[in-house]
Amino acid sequence: MLKIIIADDDPLMRRVLKNVIEKLPGISIVGEAGNGRQLVEMVEELEPEVIFLDIDMPEVSGIEASKEIFDINPNIFLIFATGFNCYAREAFEVYAFDYLVKPFDLERIRQTVKRIKELKIEREQVAVLKRERTLSRDENLKLKVLSNDKSTFINVPDIIFITRNERKTMIHVVGDMVVQTYEPLLRFEECLEKHRFFRCHKGFIINPDMVMELSPWGNKTYLVKLANTKETALMTLEHAKEFQSRYCI
Predict the structure, then answer these.
(1) With bands split at pLDDT 50, 70 and 90, how would you rate the model's confidence at 108?
(2) Which residues face 125 on adjacent strands?
(3) Against a cut of 0.90, is the pTM above it?
């Protein structure tokens, strides 16, 4: 289901777009915004995949709003739907997918949405292939951990999460094993990030494949429930958005 937000300060124009878009299969209009500031807030909350937005909106213009949106999620498809034909250059500078001028060509809207759906499928297929290649490469990899006078070798896919506690780094592994070392967390972040591990908090690195649940925990923080352990990790709000953008479909 393709999640769409429509943003225009003219309710009539929003209704015109909505009437066309909601008739298309595989579409969900998750929100409507009447100004640029409201749109940016909706993007953070609703995480749409496509936005139809006007150029001339109160508080924050469509161009300025699109810049903020790009910082939130550069993968969102931005489609400018406006009465001005003179802002196309500015629109494509913020990586607009299309630029529609009122009165709208309804068939153009349908074709644009169809193409986005095709690109979404292509993205998902590429993501699956990358994941499969990474997993096959990681199956035989071991992480070398130095602890006092010995070296411990851990199968990379078996790592659940890594955290820091009382000046020690704790590596939680499938089978209720915890390996302790004085090596810094940064060292493991640098050597594991290319193998899909994710620094979700200043004190935690997680294996995305082990994440089962995120639930609110205080202000702008989530509690992360992980497979194969009763222990939990923490994830900041900012990293939660990045996690879902990178690893979720």
Answers:
(1) confident
(2) none
(3) no
